Write the structure tokens for this entry.
Amino acid sequence: MQSRGVKKFRMSISWPRIQPTGTGPANKAGLKFYADVFDALDAAGIEPWVTLYHWDIPQALQDKYGGWTSPVRGTG
């Protein structure tokens, strides 16, 4: 990307990579993956543009609630 003059890079952060079950502590390997991506982009002078919402959903939550089409809404 750097050799092609790319200055910005749009990317998404995958929820299942960070939190595979959808709850509980973050996956250290997933956090390291993104830290490495950010470090590489920074070293190449490329600014990451991160999408905060991603269509990925952890499989455990898909199985438990039926995913984004679930009638379950929040806690209240």
Q: What stands out?
A: The longest strand covers residues 8-12. The mean pLDDT is 87.
